[in-house]
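Audit log entry. Action: structure prediction of a protein-small molecule complex. Ligand: flavin-adenine dinucleotide. The ligand was supplied as SMILES and no pocket hint was given, so placement is left entirely to the predictor. Protonation state taken as written. Sequence taken verbatim from the request; no trimming, no tag removal. Recorded inputs:
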Amino acid sequence: MSSYDVVICGAGIAGVAAADALTARGASVLLVDERPPLSLTSDKSSECYRNWWPGPDNAMVALMNRSIDHIEALARETQNAIALNRRGYLYVTTDPAQTAQLQQAGETAAALGAGPLRTHVRPDTYTPSIAHGFDGQPDGADLILDRATLRRFFPCLADATVAALHVRRCGWLSAQQLGMTLLEQARRRGAHLAHARVEAVEVQDGRVSAVQLDSRRVVTGGFVNAAGPFLRRVGRMVGVDLPVFSERHLKVAFEDHLGIIPRDAPLLICADPQAIAWTDDERAMLADDPEAQSLLDVLPAGAHCRPEGGIGSTWVIALWAYDAAPVEETFPLPAAPYFFDVTLRGLTRIIPALEAYIHRPPRPTIDGGYYTKTRENRPLIGPAGPRGSFVMGAFSGYGIMAACGAADVLAAYISGEALPAWAAAFHPARYDDPAYRALLDTWNDTGQL
Ligand SMILES: Cc1cc2nc3c(=O)[nH]c(=O)nc-3n(C[C@H](O)[C@H](O)[C@H](O)COP(=O)(O)OP(=O)(O)OC[C@H]3O[C@@H](n4cnc5c(N)ncnc54)[C@H](O)[C@@H]3O)c2cc1C
């Protein structure tokens, strides 16, 4: 077959979710990737999800709630082949001044539709999450201010912890299984996968007419740019300059052979900015290295970690985007000699026992990729360029959790279904509106981890 309703460029999580949603609506789909499916960014994530998103409106919460509904339905249909859990995200502070901010974040998220905020100032009022499964769990968030509750349920946390916000419609899953499940569903409904490179998109009379691969030409009236870190490059093929840039984000996995991180822990996040307590020798060494000098500054909040793997695993993964800045997308990623050490030290603020690994570090495995994103950290989903041309990307650090909801929106545009009101917040042409551009100047929390 050399003619399809839609050709999708990219078989990362965005592309496979789009193929799933479009074939579910009866479209014939060709999914094109020059790499194996899900192998560039979508297999490098920390596989977490949350419906906890700040912003001036409820669009991100609504998108994530839609996506998580979809993910939960898939988990039920597959006897949880995607290993979905609902352990939550735990934002931890040792700074009394941050407590009010956690409370405000909880109230704001509740107002945006993420569920109610419950505050715990006495023992025996807080319900912990379950380690496995996802059904029957609360949504919203629990602000735990009672020290006895913190010590009882989160014994690895620092004695100095003054508050923890446990956000509940959150957890993690197997992103690879999610992606493969979506891909297999799409293929069962007739989607084809081509191992090829998209070279050009042909446009006739203002509408997409064909896509040129390195191996052949495919006739189509629909083109979806789901090219991940190459979104901008592929956008130029249809004459659009997509307003995206990329940041390098890394992740480290290591064996927690001392058993410091409880195996049933939620995602543990340090909510405090901090300066690392380097020794004098370390300070001198870092000051001499122009690439590392910034490590002497106060680094942002957000160091986080979680247990990884099933029963018997001792692995932990940890991340800290302390140096996020726009960069060129280059593969393979450049070496990151300080990343493990800095991330470990950052985490000791909330989990002091990790200090044991600073001078005797376990062997780390570091990988990562790019958060390709817009300025306000919201995705691009919808028409862009000539008629028949669409974009589904700029998924930053949330593509795994957002893909199913985003694919529903994309498929609604393509098939002419009614769109949810919040879809407008992700329309690629939103920047044409001067009021929106003015709003961006006042936007200071993008919710990025
Ligand atoms: C360290 C890290 C941690 C993260 N943690 C999380 C998390 O906990 N939760 C979460 O939801 N998200 C997380 N993310 C983000 C998530 O991984 C991404 O948002 C998501 O994988 C992006 O998917 P994608 O399909 O847009 O891009 P990709 O997975 O990069 O797929 C794009 C595909 O397009 C193909 N392509 C590009 N150009 C062409 C062309 N011309 N021809 C053919 N093929 C082409 C590429 O080969 C690639 O396979 C994390 C990301 C990183 C880096």
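Audit: result stored. The domain at 3-47+175-243+374-440 is CATH 3.50.50.60 (FAD/NAD(P)-binding domain). The chain has a mean pLDDT of 97.
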